[in-house]
């Protein structure tokens, strides 16, 4: 995800805000968490700066007693993994993130499997009951609980062209969340996802196009390599590397290779 300054409120809600007012909620749901939910919408009105948006989402989830949130995106056949994004979109405990990556749980994660097949939000207990087929899958939930993630809600977010995202909310309590909690978490996830997608479209419209070789060069610049090092890695001359970097700084309208690398990362042209 990318960072951009917050836009001034327009006084009207974008499409994602209209999802909730148009729904007919039972009175019991309105009485419980409606005020906090609409405060979340109010605070995020016109906001497209992703880190702040995620921070507000996490604050809302904590009010519903879900202290941990994770948002993962993919497109097409790209593998969906739990990774620490910059800016972060995962607030799970660091120890669990490290263990998840070490064990390669992205390959067997029952929550991901169920999300691919389901359109609506679901409790993790449903994934446990529906998807558990192997000892490793059973161990996944046991180890998640050992790290404090004892129950949760996940929201599949399917899009065009095979794009796919999951928003998950986790908590240390093993109590099953009530239907009204699931409802509000679902709409908060949808709002966040649509806001991020809207920002991505804006960035794509303004993002300069680099050639594959230019992307390779600026990626290695971002990783701290000199032009000589990059030439050795890509099997091209140092002068050719400098030629590509000069073109990159021109396209990105910056004055140095370091700033070019930072801008390329912030625009999503390269992933560090």
Highlighted features:
272 residues, 9% strand, 2 domains, LuxR family quorum-sensing system transcriptional regulator CciR, four-stranded antiparallel beta sheet, 12 helices, 53% helix, Beta-Lactamase, disordered N terminus, Arc Repressor Mutant, subunit A, single chain, alpha+beta
Describe this structure in words.
One of its GO terms (biological process) is regulation of DNA-templated transcription. This is LuxR family quorum-sensing system transcriptional regulator CciR. The chain is of the alpha+beta class and 272 residues long. The chain folds into two domains: 29-204, Beta-Lactamase, CATH 3.30.450.80; 212-267, Arc Repressor Mutant, subunit A (Orthogonal Bundle). It is built from twelve helices and four strands, in the order αααβααβααββααααα. It has helices at 15-18, 27-43, 50-63, 94-103, 110-117, 124-131, 135-146, 179-206, 212-222, 227-234, 238-252, 257-266, and strands at residues 68-74, 122-123, 151-158, 164-171. A four-stranded antiparallel sheet has the order 1-4-3-2, with helices on both faces. Strand 3 (151-158) and strand 4 form a beta hairpin. The longest helix is centred in the C-terminal third of the chain and has 28 residues, at 179-206. It is globular and about 65 Å long. The two termini are 12 Å apart. 31% of the residues are buried. Mean pLDDT is 80; it is low at 1-26 and 81-87.
